[in-house]
Amino acid sequence: MTPPPGAKVFFTGTHRVRRPAETWAAIEPLLPRYGITRIADVTGLDVLGVPVMMAVRPLARSLTVSQGKGQTPLLARISAAMESLELWHAENVPRSFVHRATPARDLGLPYRIAGIVSHAGSLVTEQTPLDWVDTLDTGSGEPVPVPWPVVHLPEPVRPWTPPGFLWSSNGLAAGNSRAEAGLHAIYEIIERDALSRIPRGARWHYIDPGSLDDDVCAPLIDRVRAAGATVRITTVDSRFGVPCFAARVWSQDFPIACGGWGTHLDPHVALSRALTEAVQSRLTGIAGSRDDLPAVYQRVRLSTEDLVPEEAATLSWAEIEPPGPGAFDDVDAELAWLSGRVREVTGTGPLLADLSTAEEFAVVKVTIPQTLFDAEYLHTGQ
After folding, report:
1. For the purposes of burial, counting CB atoms within 10 Å of the CB of 121, is it exposed (0-12), middle (13-18) or buried (19 or more)?
2. Contact 329, 151 (CB under 8 A)
3. What residue stretch is flagged as signal peptide (predicted)?
4. What is the pLDDT of residues 15-56, one digit of tens each?
5. How far apart are CA 76 and CA 53, in angstroms?
């Protein structure tokens, strides 16, 4: 199958170089190859009515259930399948090492190893012997090695690595093309960097949910509120100058404040991602099917959470001045701009490892040195 061109053809809640029906037709026949046995529609387990699906991969080495969400059932189905496909590829990265047992100081890297070490008290230094795989700097086009643990999700019995690297799916993404997947990965890293830098106890800037009048987010908000749920939207400052939003959904029948976040140069896409992710995280708790889900029903029984807005100024959507150049019509142009912006902020372009195994879709793992990912804060802040 010929890779799609860079021009975008779909813009409803997400930007894609293929229409959803074309994407599904391309990936659906391949799902058994990657161990995906079922795509289940769990939308009806909640009263909100926003489409949420889950993909089941029984022999997974990490998560056996992956969630997906979207403006339509088809988009949610594709999202769930892509999430599962991403994990399969990260679990099965070929051991194509370009350097074995080599310290970073010997490689002339454009970044310091401390910039991609995630744990406090790390034992990884410039002198630590490591195995390396090649990535592509999406800004310069130059090959740049990164340590093996950065791109690979470990087997159930994790291989020993020096304490310091965080095994995570941050920056792991799939798409119709490598550029589309790369953009999704970069946005995720930017989003989590922004959220990880919010000081504890910081005051939020609220947006009136009723002030949206677009064709993408306004119908989502109306649907959730009509079901009796409360929606809270806040802006999140990003040092990369990209629109970022947080959304929370709460209702009396499932009294847990479920959160979602979204980042994109098109602010409507960023907010749509935040809203649908909040609904998805709520349904994940209701379904209880995700392998690493913390116990939530004790909190439900106790009804210990509420979603009463703190005293703070609330802005209308029209008063928001989103940063950045706005939406692009071409993923290659968007990737070039975003790569340049990342280099301005961090000193290094996004480092993309192409994990793809089929022509029909692309899977990548992107690393951006000098960015933060506070996994404990983000995963427990639902």
Report:
1. exposed
2. no
3. none
4. 999 999 999 999 999 999 999 999 999 999 999 999 999 999
5. 6
